[in-house]
Specification:
With about 180 residues, the chain is an all-alpha fold. The chain contains 10 helices and no strands.
């Protein structure tokens, strides 16, 4: 069985250096170093690629795998720091990564469902967001979390978003080489 493996390219290394700096003093809700989250999201995203593509060798050799890994590593950078999309462009991240990150960044005043539906036209954003949601919904990592009403509402929101994106992937022609048609869902 072919497996997707992480590749260390100059862009992936650049993303790793950036997230190490951005997330260096952050912890998640369970008190664990936040830097682990983007790594797990990148791993989850690579696993989704394996499920979504019938030609893993093509994905392994393609630019899209690097773009998915970089986007997964950087998916919270704009929300969690003062770094802008323009600065990421100046640092040399390509337009596919920037487009995905724009889809993945939740604007403060944006309805969450609108935010999720905004991703539908970007295959990279869909894969990364599903990977992010999968990690966010992992209750095992929340050993110090109080499972109150607020927590359950958040989990329900994540679950609904995951189902929207997975339904899209399941019922649409999901191809990393094509642009998405947002009216298709």
């Amino acid at each position: 069985m072919n497996k997707i493996v992480i590749i260390y390219t100059p862009n992936i290394n650049k993303a790793l250096r950036l997230i190490t700096e951005v997330h260096k003093n952050q912890v998640d809700k369970a008190g664990v170093a936040y830097i682990l989250h983007p790594f797990i999201v990148a791993e989850n995203a690579m696993n989704f690629c394996h499920k979504f593509s019938t030609d893993i060798e093509k994905v392994n050799k393609s630019q899209v795998l690097e773009d998915i890994i970089v986007s997964a590593l950087l998916h919270d950078v704009v929300e969690d720091s003062n770094i802008t999309f323009e600065e990421l462009e100046k640092q040399g991240f390509n337009s596919n990564v920037i487009k995905a990150l724009r889809c993945l960044t939740h604007n403060k005043n944006e309805d969450y469902d609108d935010y999720i539906h905004r991703m539908i036209d970007n295959a990279i954003a869909i894969v990364v967001k599903m990977a992010d949601l999968r990690h966010n919904m992992c209750i095992d990592r929340m050993d110090n979390t109080v499972f109150d009403k607020r927590f359950l509402i958040k989990q329900n929101t994540y679950n609904r978003a995951y189902n929207i994106l997975s339904d899209y992937v399941m019922f649409c022609d999901f191809d990393f080489d094509k642009e998405r048609d947002p009216s298709a869902i």
